[in-house]
Each structure stands twice: as structure tokens, then as C-alpha cells.
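Entry for fe (ii) ion complex. Fields follow.
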Amino acid sequence: MTAPGLTTNRAPFIEEVRGKGEIYIGQPYELYSEENQDTWRRLFARIKPKWQKYANPKFMEGVNNLAMDPNAVPKLDDINKFLCPLSGFSAKAVSGYVPAFLFFDCLRNRAFPTTITIRDGKNLDYLPEPDIFHDVAGHVPMHTDKLFADVLVRFGEVAHTAAEMVADIPDEHERVRRVESILKAMARFFWFTIEFGLMKRSGGGLCVYGSGLLSSCGEIEHCMESPEVQRFPFQLEWVINQYFEIHHYQPLLFVVDSFDHLFEEVDRLEAWMKDGKLNNVSPGEPHANEADLKSFLHAGASSVKA
Ligand SMILES: [Fe+2]
């Protein structure tokens, strides 16, 4: 039997820190097994040619600027030495799932909650949850770009506005219902942009900036080449009402013009929220769990008291 190392879903270290209720943790680098390192090497080698073909140019710049080692699981401290001076962002190690408001609040403070475990090497393709390859190879290169980093910060600000707005609602049942709807709209926006967004390429055609696509060797090609994928210009009214499923390739994707355009859409999301347009978005996925809802309600309650 191989050493468990820091393999997703079977890392004793993660179980231990979660057992203590710790969300923000260190990265005990010595725990990565040789199999973990080999998994990183194979994932990186497979995806690099796909990045060169399909990724947004800013993403490729980011990969180079971070001096990411194709042969070793990245040390977050090393990544941050290159990342912080470029955009003020840093990758912050977490023990796993982070409740929604805390996640967005980290973005507002230019920290990106980052998983440190890596998927099982026997199953490179299918992964329903983030691992360090998704988070560091898929997300973090985009954070080197100032415009993109500002989009994430703005998203965090929208979460704050949401928490403050719902805190003013006297009726508890209505307060919870409102948070559920707003959170659904925000999660859908995040999904169809930061995770699965496409962008117009200057000079024609499309490129990929969404991290779910940039970290999937199969889907990055499928999303650009398959005639079965629907690709439409980004429409806020559609995106916030569109359910999604996480267990298969995405059949529907939205295209933004630029990162300036994306920033403007986050502004619009906040304006729509203030106008009440996110209070009754269509039902369906994703469903917020209790910890997500509580994180927003608690944040709102404490900001009212402050
Ligand atoms: Fe992600």
C-alpha cells in the first residue's frame, strides 16, 4: 500500500486539522508522497500543450511569471513570492471547504483559499472537488493579472453588500429566503465566469479564462472544439437564472469581451442586487448548504452591530 501523503480524501493530516476545526492551515510540504509528486508531473505535462492552444494570453503570462515547476507540487510560499508583488494576491492554504461568505471575504482581502491535497494518481480526470492542481495550476496564474484580481476583490465586496442588506430584514424566514436567492445568483455568476468563463480573443475566436476549464485536460479542448457546446455572449439576466450541474462537461458557456467587461458585469450584479433583482432567481442548482447561509447571516449580523 502506498503512503497516503496528501492525497484528496485520504490525507490523515487533513482529517486531523479538520477535526480541530481549523480552516486556515500551513502546507506541510514533506508530507507529499512520491506518488503525489508524480501525479502533479503527469497532470502538468498533459495540460501544458492545451494551455498553449486554448488559454487566455494573460493566463500563460501568469504561468511564466509564477515560475511554476512542472515537476514538483508547488510550495505556496514560493508561489506567493512571485504573486504578491504583481497583484497583492496570495494563495492561502485551507483544510477544504470554506463557507461561502468566508471564501468571498478572503477574495476581498486578496487571499485565495487554496486546497493543498492532490487527486489520486489513478484517476487524473474525474474530480468533483478542488485539489491543488485545480487551485494553483487552474486559478492562481490568473491572479497575477491586476484587472482579473480586481474582479475577484469586487466580487468579495458584493458579498459584503449582500450580507449588510439582508441583515436589515426583520423577518427571519424572509431573511434566510433572500440570502438563499442572492447566494444562488452569486454562485451562478462565479461558476459561469471565474470557473467556466470564455473570452473573445483579440483578432477573432475564443479563449479560456475559467479555472475549471484550465485545469481539465479533457474539458479545455471539448469546450472549444465540440459543436455540442453552446457558447453565448454573457447575459447577466440569463446567468443568474441558469442552473448548472458539476458532474459532467458543461453544455452551456458564456463569453465575455474582456476583463474590463467582466468587472462591469460584477458592478451590475451588485446594482441588480440593490434593486431587488436577485431576490427571486429561478430555483435549482446550486443549493446553498447551512454553513454557507449561516456565514452570510452571521456576517450581516456582526456588521450591523459593529
Ligand atoms: Fe475553482
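NOTE: The chain has a mean pLDDT of 95.
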